[in-house]
Design goal:
Elements: E1 2-12, E2 16-26, E3 30-34, H1 41-48, E4 56-61, E5 64-65, H2 71-80, E6 82-85, H3 97-108, H4 114-119, H5 135-148, E7 153-157, H6 165-181, E8 185-189, H7 193-196, E9 201-206, E10 209-212
Parallel strand pairs: 3-8, 3-9, 6-7, 7-8
Antiparallel strand pairs: 1-2, 1-4, 4-5, 9-10
This protein binds adenosine-5'-triphosphate and magnesium ion (MG).
Length: about 210
């Protein structure tokens, strides 16, 4: 089943970032997007994850065009099916890590998975206030929060930027296992080519085009 299909996307801010960008994400599939800083990777991810409207082109999620979808349906898809793990992680700062997870669990009517917290190495500090956690711990709490709602499509922007190599690799294994087990899909933006090549497909944003390199 097709989870996401983008056709002929283009976008310009001060200058044209890219045009003619198309890609398809299937169930259990991971796609990495690489490219130099400023090439437009995060912009493309914002478009694919419905946060930003492209100048041209279409994005379909579960074969429904998001531009012609009702506001209500789009909000429901965003809430229930899309999981965003971005560079800034927007946890509720006044709360503990656990309280952040409880909000996600309550809104999505899902359970908090203690095994996941152990694997992310945040089981011990999870009751501390977010502001007392290290940057890397906060990042992993935000990953736990996103996975708690069990989304069908993960959009992940430099998820391991604050992490040492070993923890980064464990975090990525968690994402890969998650998409396999839940028939979900992932679009990952990263500078780390080793990490990118662990995905099923790799695309490079180069010279305003998205080129498949794996
Ligand atoms: N909201 C915005 N308004 C104006 N220009 C923007 C906006 N967002 C991004 N840009 C510009 O678009 C270009 C690409 O930015 P983008 O964040 O997509 O790059 P990136 O490939 O993700 O880079 P990095 O690897 O450094 O994260 C930059 O020149 C940036 O200044
Ligand atoms: Mg970026």
């Amino acid at each position: 089943m097709n989870l996401l299909s983008a056709k002929n996307l283009s976008h310009t801010f001060e200058y044209e970032l890219f045009s003619g960008v198309s890609l398809d994400l299937e169930q259990k599939e991971s796609i990495a997007i690489i490219g130099i800083s400023g090439s437009g990777k995060s912009t493309l991810l914002n478009i694919l994850s419905t946060l930003l409207k492209p100048d041209n082109g279409t994005v379909s999620i579960f074969s429904e065009d998001i531009l012609s979808m009702s506001k209500k349906r789009l909000a429901q898809i965003k809430r229930d099916e899309l999981g965003l793990v971005f560079q800034s992680h927007y946890l509720f700062k006044g709360f503990s890590g656990m309280e952040n997870l409880e909000v996600a669990a309550m809104l999505s009517k899902k359970d908090i998975d203690n095994e996941l917290l152990k694997r992310l190495k945040i089981y011990e500090p999870i009751n501390q206030k977010v502001t007392e956690l290290s940057g890397g711990q906060q990042q992993r709490v935000s990953i736990a929060r996103v996975l708690t709602k069990q989304p069908r499509i993960l959009f992940v922007d430099e998820p391991t930027g604050n992490l040492d190599k070993e923890t980064a690799s464990e975090v990525m294994d968690i994402f890969f296992e998650y998409i396999e087990k839940n028939s979900a899909g992932m679009i990952l933006v990263t500078h780390d080519e080793d990490l990118a090549y662990k995905c099923h497909k790799v695309f490079k944003l180069d010279n305003r085009e998205l080129i498949r390199v794996k």
